[in-house]
Amino acid sequence: MRLSEAWLRQYVNPAVDTAGLVHQLTMAGLEVDGAEPAAADFSGVVVARIVEAAPHPEADRLQICRVEAGRGELLQIVCGAANARAGLVAPLATEGAVLPGPTAIKRSRLRGVESFGMLCSAKELGIDENASGLLELPPDAPVGADIRDYLQLDDRILEIDLTPNRADCLSVEGIAREVALINRLPFQGVEAGAAAVGSDRRLAVHLDAPEACPRYLGRVIAGIDAKAETPLWLKERLRRSGLRSLGPAVDVTNYVLLELGQPLHAFDLAKLSGEIHVRCGHEGESLKLLNGEEITLSPDVLVIADAEKALALAGIMGGEYSAVSEGTTDIFLECAFFSPALIMGKARRFGLATDSSHRFERGVDPALQTRAIERATALLLEIAGGRAGPITESVHSDLLPVRPPIRLREKRIEQLLGLALARDEIADILNRLGMNVAPDDQGWTVTPPSFRFDIALEADLIEEIGRVYGYDNIPRRRPAVASAMQPASETVLGLDRVKDMLADRGYQEVITYSFVSSELQRRIDPQLEPETLLNPISAELAVMRTSLWTGLLDTAQKNLSRQQERVRIFETGLKFVRRGGTLEQRNTLAGLVLGAVLDEQWGEKGRRADFFDVKGDVEAILGLTGRASVRFRSAAHHALHPGQTAEIVIGHVGAGWLGMLHPQFERELGFEQPVFLFELDVGALLQRDLPRFAPLSRFPHVRRDLALVVERAVPAADLLEAVAASGGTLVRDTVLFDVYQGAGVEAGKKSLALGVILQDAEDTLTDDRVDAVMARIVERLATDFGAKLRE
């Protein structure tokens, strides 16, 4: 919500500067995201009146103006604005003025005629984008006055990020009420007396759906001046709140919405047929909205209608047919209370988001409507004239929301806040909040005001007391809570330990969205149908991820676009996979590596990371589990390179994947170097085997090396498993220390050199026993894999 500080200070003006005001609001729970100037920086611009305007003798589009600027003499200004004319009051940048840019104004000569300054448009002053002509000021604007003072341009616009429960602060009055509360200042609210009634014209109103709209007010205002202009002060307040001027009738309703928080709407009376009905839409009924979109209504949508057709989408947007226009002279002004439960979600259904729906969805004060329509009537009569008819009100009082009384216990306040406040101070805070307070022996019975939809429980009242007392005034104390040590199983590996391991190896943790692009998701996991979001934030976040790789790849792309050539990142989080009719949420650890193995340095020659570098990182993680039954099995994955892909198997269950990104995806995603990925199921990863003590052997070990020739497709891991299985208890370890393909080795085959380490715990090994074990190993390898000893 955008809010003019100058407008706010007209209602309540605490003795604090802008920074102090921002701090107060933020600490009160109304977070201020920023405070920006209401206008660009400029100086030397005054209010001036054009006394004479004559055509330039040498240029058709220029005029020579004689301008009064409060200096006792007329200044000659050459101007090209189409609306420059005698009698017009406009801003004048005098000699020496500095306009936004910055642009210094000097005496100049235009087509042979001297000009002693420049008449300015709103765009040239940096207060609007409109550059169609000079900024027209009111005729009674004081000539010679500094334009910054006259328009209060030394103002700040506060950007307030309200939480959804604070609908009462969606107005200048609501924020002013909070500022008065914080600073212990009196606050009366916006004055809105009864407007003068000059006509007896009225339209009857019928509430056909009172549960959705229990209160509706309407008023006919006839004979307004169709050529009337919205005054500059009102236009400025709208502009600083992010709204543009659309004519007096619309501007007044927008102004009251900003000032009081009550949406209103004006219909062109000449376009209405018969009485007003607040009803549900008919099946298949259509309505063309103000934005030009035609929607199809249904019975669960509330509309404002006349005797023949729907006129507006209640609480959301008016219809195009009944909208006021430049020729409108008679209007029907409506003001209503709509049930938040009915309005909620309807705007989003039709792809709309309006200021009205934003407020009605969160709750508008049900006691505000009369004051709002009287305020809007008075403003419209002042600006555009006309004759107001009596207010027509239709209300079902029994259906209006009522704030029930809440029991507040004094002891409970101390328990939740950890702070003992005096009873008088508590009562004072509640009274300043607008509560109706009745004391009793244990505390108070408190009735919230009608505008506080967010207060329903005792805890809500205590939160308000803490908020107003000041969060920064509440002392810090450690809670006196009895705690018991919870058992921590040694068979469970902590996820934080895994994260520390990756951080030690140069990875950085990232957090990405669970929502991803459907196109990228399809490339990564085409065999899985992702869960589609009904209301995605954007097209790039349309489906739930079935792999964490989507977010990591997007992060890597963004890093590369910012010239970060070495990327090592990981993430832990949920992926969402539908199995049958159930959506499974699986906790997963995933990582991505691209670029150099090490940061650039003088001690090591630079090289890019490869499959085995990343495999080493994964093995280090798996090493934390102490499990011996971990294998890397050659497999195929749609997103990974066919020749550099491994399935990670723990026991006999697949627990993850490791590999290089498929070259096709690599090109499509714009990577110019290999990208390596891994993913592990956290549930399987965090199961740890306990280490068991084994006595050290007092006897020496023996090492025998084997040089074997096998088919190129035979995994070395299978050979190592076979050696361990056939060697029995004497084989303590097996090491693969050489792999060779080339001259001397038959095509399609490879040479593997294995070091077999044997040791007996109870005796010294003899050559005969070692030879027997080695023979058994060679025979097993020959039988199972066709391995031959290399000559």
From TrEMBL:
Domain B5: 401-476
Catalytic activity: tRNA(Phe) + L-phenylalanine + ATP = L-phenylalanyl-tRNA(Phe) + AMP + diphosphate + H(+)
Any single GO BP term: phenylalanyl-tRNA aminoacylation
GO CC aspect terms: phenylalanine-tRNA ligase complex
Entry's localization field: Cytoplasm
Highest taxon above the source species: Bacteria
Stretches assigned to the TRNA-binding domain: 39-148
Swiss-Prot/TrEMBL keywords: Aminoacyl-tRNA synthetase, ATP-binding, Cytoplasm, Ligase, Magnesium, Metal-binding, Nucleotide-binding, Protein biosynthesis, RNA-binding, tRNA-binding
Free-text remark on how the cofactor is bound: Binds 2 magnesium ions per tetramer.
Location (main, coarse): cytoplasm
Quaternary context: Tetramer of two alpha and two beta subunits.
Record-given protein name: Phenylalanine--tRNA ligase beta subunit
Lineage: Bacteria, Pseudomonadati, Pseudomonadota, Gammaproteobacteria, Methylococcales
Gene: pheT
